[in-house]
């Protein structure tokens, strides 16, 4: 097993609990970590034996384009999509951050982190 990480992804998106946040938008950050078997790709140097970083980025970008009220919901959608579409991924951890959230004071960012492991298939 090994880990692929995409750190410091940045997006301008329209998430937020308040209607105004969904109208004016904000800057968001995403850190994504997946656990998968990297041995075959390490030995072969073949892209088809690993998870393509561009595919991961595109999945995150598409989920970031769909407005949500809560960061938790955005992170949940990213987890669901990766687990559903990439069967070789064993574990996903995603952090979604909102920069300068409207809290009435100074806060560089608010962040949520969710983790999901693929359910083990029962032995036949």
Automatic annotation (TrEMBL):
This is 7,8-dihydroneopterin aldolase. The gene is folB. GO terms for molecular function: dihydroneopterin aldolase activity. Residues 4-116 form the Dihydroneopterin aldolase/epimerase domain. Belongs to the DHNA family. NCBIfam families: folB, folB_dom. It catalyses: 7,8-dihydroneopterin = 6-hydroxymethyl-7,8-dihydropterin + glycolaldehyde. Catalyzes the conversion of 7,8-dihydroneopterin to 6-hydroxymethyl-7,8-dihydropterin. SMART domains: FolB (SM00905). InterPro entries: Dihydroneopterin_aldolase (IPR006156), FolB_dom (IPR006157), GTP-CH-I_C/QueF (IPR043133). It comes from the Bacteria. Keywords: Folate biosynthesis, Lyase. It comes from Hymenobacter jeongseonensis. It is an enzyme of class 4 (lyase). Its EC number is 4.1.2.25. Pathway: Cofactor biosynthesis; tetrahydrofolate biosynthesis; 2-amino-4-hydroxy-6-hydroxymethyl-7,8-dihydropteridine diphosphate from 7,8-dihydroneopterin triphosphate: step 3/4.
């Amino acid at each position: 097993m090994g880990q692929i990480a995409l750190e410091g992804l940045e997006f301008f998106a329209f998430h937020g609990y308040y209607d105004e946040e969904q109208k004016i938008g904000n800057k968001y950050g995403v850190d994504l970590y997946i656990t998968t078997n990297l041995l075959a790709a390490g030995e072969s140097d073949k892209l088809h034996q690993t998870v393509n970083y561009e595919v991961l980025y595109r999945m995150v970008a598409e989920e970031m384009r769909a407005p949500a009220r809560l960061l938790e919901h955005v992170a949940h959608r990213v987890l669901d999509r990766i687990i559903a579409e990439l069967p070789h991924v064993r574990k996903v951890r995603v952090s979604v951050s909102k920069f300068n959230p409207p809290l009435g004071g100074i806060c560089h960012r608010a962040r949520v982190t969710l983790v999901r492991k693929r359910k083990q298939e029962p032995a036949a």
